[in-house]
Amino acid sequence: MIEANLRGVDTHGTTRQLCIYVRRLQEGVMNPRTEIVVVRENASTVFLDCRNSIGQVGAAHAMRRAIEKATHTGVAVVAVTHSNHYGAAAYWAMQALPHDMIGFSSTNAPATVAPTGGRKPMLGTNPFAVAIPAAEEDPVVLDLATTVVPFGRIQLHAKQNKGLEPGWAFDTDGNPTLDPHAALKGFLAPIGGYKGYGIALAIDLLCGVMTGSSYGAHFPGFLAENLEDPTDVGSIFAALSVASFIDVDRFKSGIDRAVREIKNSGKAPGVTRIYVPGEIEFETKRQRAVHGIPIPEAVLADFVRLGSDLGIPFPQVVVRK
Amino acid sequence: MIEANLRGVDTHGTTRQLCIYVRRLQEGVMNPRTEIVVVRENASTVFLDCRNSIGQVGAAHAMRRAIEKATHTGVAVVAVTHSNHYGAAAYWAMQALPHDMIGFSSTNAPATVAPTGGRKPMLGTNPFAVAIPAAEEDPVVLDLATTVVPFGRIQLHAKQNKGLEPGWAFDTDGNPTLDPHAALKGFLAPIGGYKGYGIALAIDLLCGVMTGSSYGAHFPGFLAENLEDPTDVGSIFAALSVASFIDVDRFKSGIDRAVREIKNSGKAPGVTRIYVPGEIEFETKRQRAVHGIPIPEAVLADFVRLGSDLGIPFPQVVVRK
After folding, report:
1. Which of B59, B134, B259, B290 gives the lowest tally of CB atoms within 10 Å of its CB?
2. Using an 8 Å Cβ cutoff, are B150 and B156 in contact?
3. Coil, strand or helix at A290
């Protein structure tokens, strides 16, 4: 979670999730003890039952196993069942980078997206991440939800009474809408219409159905929305060893070259810089590693309260504005 | 190519591609002799140099090897270099289905898409396909290019002087445009803006840079656009054995159930049916397997001419209108 904050992905950082995670542990709806069981194992695959443990613990275990197996066979896929919200997908894919591997991770989530032509949410935002190592350039790290915008963006526009852009969301009837309040009751639009719906479905069938976890409309509410039922998330992790295909040095310098070509290519009017996926997050991390992670005062108060509830003394706080 | 026609994907069928393929072979820009060389091999990976052979021949070989290895280790990835246009991505992913495996295939292509903020095409439409077996329902087969619409759609609108929909394309300066003629000189929009750009880039880095094939803006023209230089396409194929994670029967009936839930879910106003990815193609195939593949007269004339050029007698033609 701290890494997500460092990378500027505050939606998946301590600032938004820590208190919710602790609450779920306190309510007994997520298991603080990690009892991960190997259900099936093959030379290049592992299937783990995480038994409702913290999502990050299962994910770390799964990605470690994927990397270890890929070292021997070239590629490995690890699936987990009965797990929980695992934070930022990119973090898991990036575990492969120091091993000169390409990392992949994906997870399903409670339904907020309707199939094309539908009016009922049947699929989650189902994000996936791909991490590709480079030499001198930052690694290319793609991490995306399969919707055009996150639900938080709709909430923000609703709060500000600001219209949505076309193609972002639908109302409860399944009609496209620019009204943030109608969209709040409705659902999000997948990227590329039926294409994003297809990607979200494929991820749900692999992460959910294949692992015997929740899928489609069967999810109970997520995170703070439901403090009674385990979420039962399924996730997939993969590692692909670059050396199985090409010398690592040649690969990494090739990625550098490709990245530079894109960054130096012609820019549209008014654009001063072209970014590659993950670049903004690496820059943010370099800044925040020096200057710290900005924490809104309300969140800080939550942290102090949480620490005092749990008997953990909070370090001295100096509010910088 | 015939399978693509049967599935209604005529853009990748004989109707559009056969004469171009033959022309490339005649011009010596694609090698009719298949000399596929294993460059690297591991327990779960193979890297093949296709030496400019016909894309489909390399792809068939690659997918066969992926399935064979996944049978033993649970998952396998095969990459090919120095190959050519391989037809419809779905066809290769679908090879995994009779083996109760999930299939995947992806390829890069000459640049028609600019990075977000850019004005120069640096990436191809870079399609990928995922095939997931079911029991009584048709398999779920996702096959998508990472652009909102294909270039052919722009060409069609230009021919008809019909405006484009917002979000389809950009003009040469990188400004969004609704003018099909401006878009013809410009470039296509990726799905979900920077998200589709990221997916197309990740595919290019794996299919192109990792395999040492053409990538980014380095491609010579494709298919009929360039009859002098080999295209040097790179592609990736993968097979994942369902039984490594869950009993196959349980998986397939789970996919049936998930598919039916989506198809039976609430519909938006005016919508009579919700489709899952691949469903339209399976229906088209059932129809065309009975009634035949419709061939436009101009294409038929091309076929007859091609047959007579090559000394292959063409079967008796009865034109049905």
Report:
1. B290
2. no
3. helix
Residues (pLDDT < 70) of chain A are 318-321
CATH of region B1-146+193-321: 3.30.1370.60
Chain A nearest CA to B300, separation (Å):
32
CATH number for the segment(s) A37-146+192-291? 3.30.1370.60
Q: Extract the tokens encoding A308.
A: 């005092």
| CA–CA separation, B75 and A289 (whole Å) | 38
Q: How far, in Å, CA of B1 to CA of B15, rounded?
A: 8
Domain residue spans of chain A: 37-146+192-291, 148-189
How far is Cα B15 from Cα B58, in angstroms, rounded to an integer? 22
DSSP label at A121? -
What residues of A are in contact with residue B195 (Cβ under 8 Å)?
A: 144, 191
Q: Does A124 touch chain B (CB under 8 A)?
A: no
A37-146+192-291 and A148-189 share one fold: no
Interface test with A, best of B252, B262, B275 (most A CBs within 10 A): B262
B217 touches chain A (CB under 8 A): yes
Residues 230-289 of B with CB under 8 A from A: 238, 240-242, 244-246, 250-251, 254-255, 258, 261-262, 265-269, 271, 273-277
Which residue of chain B has the CA closest to A49? Answer: B245
Report the alpha-carbon angle A25-A30-A31, nearest 5.
90
B198 and A274 within 8 Å at the Cβ level: the answer is: no
- β-bridge pairing B45-49 and B75-83: parallel
State pTM to two decimals.
0.96
Asked if A116 reaches chain B (Cβ–Cβ under 8 Å), the answer is: yes
CATH class of A148-189: alpha beta
Decide: B124 and B112 in contact? Cβ < 8 Å.
yes
